[in-house]
Structures are given as structure tokens and as C-alpha cells.
Amino acid sequence: MNFPSRETVERLRREYPTGTRVELVHMDDVQTPPVGTTGSVISVDDIGTIHVAWSTGSSLGVAYGQDLCRRIDDA
Asked: Judging by beta carbons within 10 Å of its beta carbon (0-12, 13-18, 19+), is residue 46 exposed, middle or buried?
């Protein structure tokens, strides 16, 4: 696994602060919620994983460089 640089982790923390709403685009995990599931960011850890409380009740993290979510900005 390639770990992100400190600068990348800090950028992720600025882009995905606690409470940010996100939508799942892709996740490679057997416990994956369905694509399109929404949730709220809990935190971003030191290896760039975006930890999310998903609307399904799951709390799987979005792994940097492997999984993908997108921000849902209020209109």
C-alpha cells in the first residue's frame, strides 16, 4: 500500500472536515455499502483514510488510493 504524504493528508482533512456529507462512488470491501450510499465524515486519519458514518449504519473508512467517495455540497 502506498501511504500519502503529510501534505496530502492535510489536504484531505481540509477537504473532508468532520460532518462533511459524502456519497460512496467505489469501495473494494465485502462489507461495502451500496454505491450511492451517503454518510457523514467522522475523521481523516494519519494514512488518509476518510472514516464515514454511512446511512446504512456502517462505519467503514474510505481508503486513500483504493476507494472513492465524493463530497455532497449543499445547494
From this structure: exposed
Using one digit for the tens of pLDDT, what is the confidence trace for 7-53? Answer: 999 999 999 999 999 999 999 888 899 999 999 999 999 999 999 99
In terms of Cβ atoms closer than 10 Å to its own Cβ (0-12, 13-18, 19+), residue 32 is middle
DSSP-assigned letter for residue 37: -
Distance between CA 31 and CA 17 in Å, rounded? 24
Cell of 63: 481508503
Domain edges within the chain: 6-71
Question: 32: which 3 cell numbers?
Answer: 461495502
pTM strictly above 0.85: yes
Domain 6-71 -> CATH class: mainly beta
Paired strand residues for 61: 51
